[in-house]
Structures are given as structure tokens and as C-alpha cells.
Amino acid sequence: MSAPGTDLLSAFPAFYELPPSSAPSSSDEDTWYLLAQIKENMTLTKPTLIVTDRKGVDFAVTFDDALDLKARGFRKGRTLVAPRATREDREEGKKAIVRIGRGCAGDVKVIPGGLEQVSELAFLLAGSDGLGQKCAACGATEGSLSKCTGCATAAYCSKDCQVKGWSELGHKSNCKVIRSIRDIWG
Ligand SMILES: [Zn+2]
Ligand SMILES: [Zn+2]
């Protein structure tokens, strides 16, 4: 995709904002991403994850493909990214789910960070005054800024600021999340 569109909230719908799977599929230009934090691996017969969306709603994501979720990095506390996910409403008494159809498991990504961290960074990266325009530690915009070699995104005015950003300001944890977000959304 190109970076998330102008309407970020509709680009990242919560579970009950997803279109129902019975709805006619929309045009290819319309892309949205379900972001949800992995809570549990509940695989019995089909690969299944219990996840939580940004509104705190828990639901199951099942995969029609046979795959080893653990080996693919789908672990507790991380964030799952499912493009063009739909909600499958089932008969009364059974909770709705998200079903990843056959051949589509490869489109579903995982980001090594929690949902809150991922959302914050994704919004920041999508914004026009995102990272990289000023020193991520002291805010300096003057002089030459060098980019972090890990994520090629966060910028620093000096070695001192880079060290401070990494250890005190949390870039150590954000760096790999930013890298994953950029791998997915460019
Ligand atoms: Zn600085
Ligand atoms: Zn970095």
C-alpha cells in the first residue's frame, strides 16, 4: 500500500467496524487493515488466535491455511495486521470471527510490539510531521541529522542524542516496530 490514507481511523477499523464477509467486496483501491493484539494461540484443528482490537473487544482469527503460527512469529503481546479483513457473523449464540481464507495467510503480518505502541508509531509515521524531520531526542532541526541505521527513520543531531534516544527515550523498543511498519506500509 501507500502510507495509510488521510482518514486513519477508517484505514484501521476496529472489529465491529469491519465489513461483514457477506457484503459484496469493494473496489481494489479500498484497503484497510485490521490491527489487533495477540492474546492467545487457541489452535485446535484450524490455526486460531484470540486477539484484542483497539476498543478492547476480543475475537478469534482463524486461518484456512495450515500454518505454524508460532514459527511465523504470531506470539502473545504482538500485533497482527490483516489487510482487507472482514467479519464473519455466525449463527446466534456464536461469536463473530475473522476468517483468513485459503491462500491469504501470507498477507497477514505480525509486528513485534503491542497494539498501542504500533498504532502510535503508525500514526506518527503516516503524519506529515513524522519522524526524521527533527532530532528525535532534543528536537533540533538545524544542522545535519543522521538517521538510525536500524529503522532508517528516527533522526538524531548527535551521537549523544542517539544514545539518549535509544536508552532513555525508548527507541530501543520502537526501532524494530518502526522497521516492521515500514516493511508493511513502505
Ligand atoms: Zn539532538
Ligand atoms: Zn531505529
* Helical/strand content category: alpha+beta
Bound molecules: zinc ion
The mean pLDDT is 90
User: Per DSSP, what share of the residues sits in E-state strands of 2 or more residues?
Assistant: 15-25%
CATH architecture of the largest domain: Beta Barrel
Q: What's the total helix number?
A: 4
Q: Biggest β-sheet, characterized?
A: 7 strands, mixed
CATH level 4 superfamily of the largest domain: Nucleic acid-binding proteins
How many distinct beta strands?
A: 9
Remind me, CATH topology of the largest domain?
OB fold (Dihydrolipoamide Acetyltransferase, E2P)
What's a quick, concise take on this entry?
With 186 residues, the chain is of the alpha+beta class. It contains four helices and nine strands; from the N terminus they run H-E-E-E-E-E-E-E-H-E-E-H-H.
What does this structure look like?
- This protein has a 7-stranded mixed sheet, with helices on one face. Strands 8-9 form a two-stranded antiparallel sheet.
- The chain has 2 domains: 8-114, Nucleic acid-binding proteins (OB fold (Dihydrolipoamide Acetyltransferase, E2P)), CATH 2.40.50.140; 128-185, no CATH class.
- The model is unreliable at 1-5 (pLDDT under 50).
- Helix 2 packs across helix 4 (171-185).
- The protein has 186 residues and is α+β, with helices and mostly antiparallel strands.
- It has helices spanning 8-11, 115-126, 159-167, 171-185; strands spanning 33-41, 48-52, 58-63, 79-83, 87-88, 97-100, 109-111, 146-147, 155-156.
- It is built from 4 helices and 9 strands; from the N terminus they run αβββββββαββαα.
- Strand 8 and strand 9 (155-156) form a beta hairpin.
- The chain is elongated, with a radius of gyration of 18 Å.
- It starts with 7 loop residues before the first helix and ends with a helix.
- Bound molecules: zinc ion (ZN) (2 copies).
